[in-house]
Amino acid sequence: MRRFVFAISALVIMSCSGEVSQNFGCGCPIYPDYMDVTVPAGIAPLNFDYCIPADDAVTVFSYGDLTYRFKGPEIRWNAGNWRRLLSAATDNDIQVTSSVIDRSWTIHVSGDDIDYGLNYRLLEPGYEVYSKMGIYERDLSSFRQRTLIDNNDFSGCVNCHAYNRADPSGMTLHIRGDHGATLLMKEGRIEAYDTKTDSTSGFCVYPYWHPSGKYIAYSTNNTRQSYHTKAEKLIEVFDLASDVQVYDVEHNCLILNPSVRQKGMWETFPVFSADGRTLFFCAASEKNIDTELESVRYNLYKVSFDPESGTIGDDVELVIDAESDGKSISFPRPSYDGRFLVYTLSDYGQFSIWHHEADLWKLDLLSGETSPAVEVNSGDTESFHNFSSNSRWMVFSSRRDDGQFTRLYIAHVDENGCFSKAFMLPQKNPRRYYGTLFMSYNVPEFVSGPVSFSHTKAARAINGDARIPFGVKHE
Amino acid sequence: MLHSDRIICRIPSLLLFLSTFLFLGLAYPSHLCYQEQYQLFEWTWGYFADVASVPGGFSDWCGRFLTQFFICPWAGAAIIALLLYAVQALSFKLSGTASLLSRIWSLVPACILLLFFLDDKALVGAAVAFVLVLTASVAVRAVRGKMLGSAAYVAAVPVLYFLCGPLSVLFVIAAGDWKRIYTVLAALLVLLACPFASSLLFHFPLWRLFAGIHYYRYQTDVPVVLWLSALSFVLYQAIFSIPALQAVKERKMYAACAVSFVAVVLSFVTAVMKNAEFSNEEIMLCDRLVRSEDWKGIISRQNVHPADKPFSVCCLNLALMEEGRMPDDMFNYYQNGIAGLFPPFKISYTSPIPVAELFWRVGMVNACQNYMFEAQEAIPDFQKSARIYKRLAETNIVNGNYDVARRYLNSLCNTLFYRQWARERLGDMDSAPFACDYLLEKGSIRSNGKDYMFSDKRIDSVLEIILEEKPENSRAYDCLLAWDLLNKDLESFMKHFDPGRKVPVPKHFQEAVLLNLISSGAMLEDAPDMVSEENVSRLQSFIKDIQARRSESYMHKYYGDTYWFYSLYR
Asked: Fewer beta carbons within 10 angstroms: which end of chain A, N or C?
């Protein structure tokens, strides 16, 4: 009874109190850390909150004749003012001063355009069971996020999705669960495919479009998950087998070549070069996972691809020998201008998302030099990344906030491959939003326009029994 | 109406309230706690917006608000009883009759709703939606003026659909002026359009927009009993609108009332007894006792309801471990192998929880976190669990992931019943040195040196490693030896057994040592000193009875509390 009385009293008290929100123990006095970042002119307002006592703070943004003042600990922009400031300051720096921080900082407004938005998966960073998840689209010029598909539409798990160079008209999306299928969206039509064939070891998993749109490189992965017992490590995702193949979209057949399906090797994460004539992929020597998990290390390889004939070459070539440095490569992503390739480097394995030591590295495709992308890395995981269609922006996921929930960051990349300091995906009320969001951002992809995706059609295709089988072409 | 008649007329309603209240409070308390366990009601605008922004979301939010009080089962019983009382009272009012007969039959929708709540997947939001649409019907009927009334009636349909979901069909039927059929048809058309319009805005299959999104926890099932209740409301309204029924003579009316009352009560008592999930109640009680750490309560329940399912056996073994009685008493009770100690992981929102509690207490913090997290992810309607949030906050504190722990604690700070606890933990974390002694204990017993990948098939190896690093972890020691005994692996038992660790040597360990002795061909006279004479002579009798080919029931009667019996007969 006392508890009940307490509950009623608490109800009255709580109705008068505000929400409790996360105050991340960030080293930076503001959250998100927007100090000295480079942003595109079309980005949504960089609202932020002070992480230090700042009730009386006066924050001033100025460029030329334009000056905007904010009082208090929460910086919330009027969209019109923000746009005015950014368009005036394009290719220049906005100066920011604060009465409670003893240094001023800048926000550089780049003249390089960014795509319309981002597509990503949101899900709880868990083990094998999944609760609510979906693929969402975020308009980068505002805070608007819309659901493309989620598992209210069907019973299952939405998995890897990919667009061709941010083109929203074509998408591949893998669905797991009882209604497992690979959805292909081509010019508004959505069809469900069965990508498992007698000649391959499983479903097609990690996709990457050929620049012509005629092919999709896929890996087939026999993936397992387990978890560590040490406090600082958590989940481990590993493959027991994997191969690479190319899907011919026009002829509906998988192109299988022994050069990327070698015995004793695990090939994964295939990506096409910007000109579509090279197929990059990661590969590791097969190991006994039970005893040698931490010695499974993936190198970066490449092989030629002839888009005219749809032929994978036999000239497999080692590009980066990470294994000999005691490291492992995952998620290679070439820039669309053909100049660079960014990959994730971790201590071992292929699923670097759960590795705190994972960092982004850059490979200069002209000189062959590789180096860490120090401007964007942090003390925690940096992993899955993608380039904007003009290759001037890179989105990547990072666990730098708290070590568990991945958030999206965007960095500018100049013609020489130099990265700016990355900025966190803006939100209207960032501390409350990110502090109460128990989901991780996953597989971010730029899109150049809103994706015309009918969730009802997709759900019908997924929930239906019809699956178009993949054909096979052996080389 | 005479005063005495008025009292008589209220008897059915009062009976409904009292019987529901007493039945749920006495026979179904763990079901009520179970409902509360699988939600996390946050008193924030964000939570409200998240829940209420789908068709039927407002009634769902109200239901969740009420469900948080189910942490006290009697409060939960009172809330459901009040909701059913409201359904009955509103049904009666909307019938427009005043007779006792009508009042008795107005019990039917509420009684069927009670049957709905016997199902642990039924959500309180359904009853709230029922009450809201009937209340709206009463309100709209009270609007004066034909045009205004009709306008309010039709305009209320989409609003009610958005607030309460498809149960708004009851509003269309109950609030409509059937003499002006075109308004009812218009309202029906509007209502039919609502799910189609919603399917364009919300990500739900059309059938769910027609059947209700948050009336039932399982997304793939239609809550048939709920819709039967709605149908009974419609039939009740239709039947009692027949003028002939209102003109029944008084004497016949009394007879009809008596027969109706007996029929309604008997039918529903029978239906309740047939549909009540008493076996689930027992399992939920086990879980509730684990949650409240009432270990003695779990053990004492064995005299009334012996554990016979992996879930309840796991709860029992956990209680025995916590009471330090596992090596002495575990075979006093039914054991079903290692599945009763560490049941293998199953995708479920209930079964991983007691195993997770066992992992937590043994020092397998990441395993506990995994099982708890997975249990929460498996909640079919995507809700979160305050109980699980508490444990996840603790596992993250022990693992040193303070920022992640703060996330969970901050969410719990937005609740009524967990706020104080969460604030205390936040205070502990902010104090220097770290002031949460019971968590420090967990941190000190967790294995942190050697890293290995967890497997529920190799828990013995995990326990071995924990003991290598922390030999003082007596729970891990008891579990490891229990694992060997349950697996009938005497070789491993003898390898892990440390005679000097517990003096006197626990009963089941002595039994295993003796069994190992005779299995190796040695004589019982060679039994080591740590084994009591009583156990030696009991084993001699056991062997004699085996040789005499005694029946299993005989052996169970005389040796059912021994490891020998388990070893030979289970």
From this structure: N
